[in-house]
Write a structure and sequence with these properties.
Helix content is 46%, strand content 11%. The protein is an alpha/beta fold and 295 residues long. The chain is globular. It holds the Pfam family Abhydrolase_1.
């Protein structure tokens, strides 16, 4: 998962995935907390956090599970880690799906006015409730936040606010070492022209999924990433940065389509989901058992 997010953030997508009956039959899924967050350790030295090192962590999870190969799915910082994993061990990648992704470095710095304003407001707040409100504005679409939760009848925003505050009280939030480490991983991440070429020629299908309303990771960066990877781009119009929650059903559709394409023998050359006009986003100023590993 992405910067400062635990593996639990994948639950809406995973629940939807396993509600699809025979379409998800035979799938095994692994989610985990990256180093620096949740139940994983938080090394003190920020140099212990790079996307290359964290890709090694993900491969270690696959080793522990006895998985020789998996569909690799990453969100935000997790997508950067997924790219590094694919470069380290391409023979272990059945497909590569990158969600809400950028090329890292300066591309990871929001330039959207709404995001900057929310960040300034958040930096001035210290109580969990106010920080929660800022985080939600960063990560989720207004459409999702206004929806009613079918179980409680409350808005999704109210439910997420409570979850955020409860998590902060229970865990104390992400450690300073984890925050600094994740920032280091994101800001030092980049791929060379040669590495993009290696991914293009690796043979496995690559898919980029992104929310058109993302104010953290600009859609133009996702379009550029897809072009560099020679990959199809799926732009979801009503989604913001947290696409696995904002558009769980659509993400599940794309993942299952990719899994099925691989079952049929699809390779990188098979563009299953071409974006109608990725250049429009690139120019905009305003991403036996089959196994899935979610980073």
């Amino acid at each position: 998962m992405g910067f400062a997010a635990t593996g639990e953030a994948w639950l809406p997508t995973i629940k939807d995935l396993f509600s699809r009956g025979s379409k998800s039959a035979g799938l095994e899924v692994a989610v985990f907390d990256n180093r620096g967050i949740g139940a994983s350790s938080s090394p003190a030295d920020k140099k212990a956090y790079t996307t290359n090192i964290m890709a090694g962590d993900a491969l270690a999870v696959m080793d522990a599970l006895g998985w020789s190969r998996a569909h690799i799915v990453g969100h935000s910082m997790g997508a950067m880690i997924a790219c590094r994993l694919a470069l380290q061990a391409p023979q272990r990648v059945a497909s590569l799906t990158l969600i809400s992704a950028t090329g890292g470095g300066s591309e990871a710095i929001p330039t959207n006015c709404t995001a900057i304003a929310a960040g300034v407001r958040g930096a001035m707040k210290t109580d969990p409730l106010s920080r929660a409100s800022t985080d939600l504005a960063f990560h989720f679409s207004k459409r999702l936040l206004a929806q009613k939760d079918p179980a409680s009848g409350r808005t999704v925003k109210a439910e997420l606010m409570d979850q955020y505050v409860e998590l902060q009280k229970a865990t104390g939030g992400q450690s300073r070492a984890g925050q600094d480490g994740h920032m280091n991983a994101v800001m030092t991440h980049s791929l060379s022209k040669q590495e993009y070429a290696q991914l293009r020629s690796a043979g496995f299908p690559i898919l980029v999924i992104h929310g058109a309303e993302d104010i953290l990771a600009a859609p133009r960066h996702a379009a550029r990433l897809a072009r560099r990877l020679g990959a199809p781009l799926v732009m979801i119009g009503h989604s913001a940065h947290f696409t696995p929650r904002d558009a769980a059903a659509e993400v599940t559709d794309e993942l299952l389509a990719t899994v099925e394409a691989v079952r049929r023998g699809a390779t990188h050359a098979d563009a299953v989901h071409p974006c109608p006009n990725p250049a429009a986003y690139e120019r905009s100023a305003c991403a036996a058992a089959l196994c899935c590993c979610f980073a």
